[in-house]
Amino acid sequence: MSIATSTEDRKVTLQLTGDLDLHTSQDLLDEVEHHLEQGIQGLELNLVANQKLDSFGVASLIETYRLADQQGIQLKIRGLSEDVIDLLQMIDVEKVAASLETQPPTNPSFFERTGGRSLRFRQTSKDFLVLASNALYFGFIGPFRGQGFKFWSLVGQIARAGVNALPVIILLSFLVGLIMAMQSDHQLRKFGAQHFVPQLMAVTIIRELGPFLTGVIVAARTGSSIAAELGTMVVTEEVDALKTIGLNPYVFIVVPRLLSLLLVVPCLTIVFDISGLGGGYCVAYATGESSFSEYYRKTVEALDLLDLMAGLTKAFFFGLGISLISCFMGLRITQGAEGVGRATTGSVVLSIFVLVGIDLFFTGLFFMS
Prior knowledge:
- The protein is an alpha/beta fold.
- It folds into two domains: 2-101, Transcription Regulator spoIIAA, CATH 3.30.750; 128-367, no CATH class.
- The protein is 71% helix and 9% strand.
- Strands 1, 2, 3, 4, 5 and 6 form a six-stranded mixed beta sheet that branches.
- A hairpin with a 2-residue loop joins strand 1 (2-8) and strand 2.
- The longest helix is centred in the middle third of the chain and has 39 residues, at 197-235.
């Protein structure tokens, strides 16, 4: 928060820009006390450019009124929202409420809307980079400097994200393998090339469908769960409680979920690949095109080390993206239960967009360079 001061006829106006919360309320009180000591005759607080006001900010406004009232100085507060005004009136601070001046609603111009969105995007990007850097530090560097994470918490997250997801992964991948094999056999049979179905299945699933569909399933199943869980912790102030007793939320909340998805997504991708190829073999066996040994031989011949590296590399970074996005969306909730729902939906949608971007990047890196 920044405070701009203007003085006219011994009347001071304080223009507040940014958040008035736990971390900045004391700055406001220090500024007010400084001007009151100089014997001013009037004080005005302008909060039109204020972005967020929490309970500490409201308390600082009440304390500002008390200090001004003690010296008989007139106080005016402009720019507060109707919700904050209602809160002040609800707690029966009558004189404070009487000092408020409600700003008439305005329709921002195109440039104001664009500028506001740009500033919000910049702040969101900054917050995400802070979370990502802290999570990666405490996940990979901190343990070697005596800042270890909770091992059993990591084990629990691996069980929830990995072991419990196996039935879904196996069933869906097998069905996808069946569908792909039937579609491929139908199309290739027109050209007398149905014996290439094993090669087509192997390359498509290992390179592309295996890691991508696994990432989508994990984002929808585990990513949404992480966002909802962390959002609920924020709403119930469990995260603030951890900070209050001196525990690092990144170590206890973010790092186990980050490391678990980094380990789980590649493993689930391997399971998806095997099960999907199994579905393809069932179609080849049912059509009489290949025996198991022949299907296995054609699959192995169609693949090389680059295909396996590409699939697992994508899966690793898919896990990284899903975990960071889900944790970020969950920890930035500010509007209670409604915010939890929006964060859960947003984490899945944003994760899928990020998966497509990562997929595109590594596809170009491995196969187009």
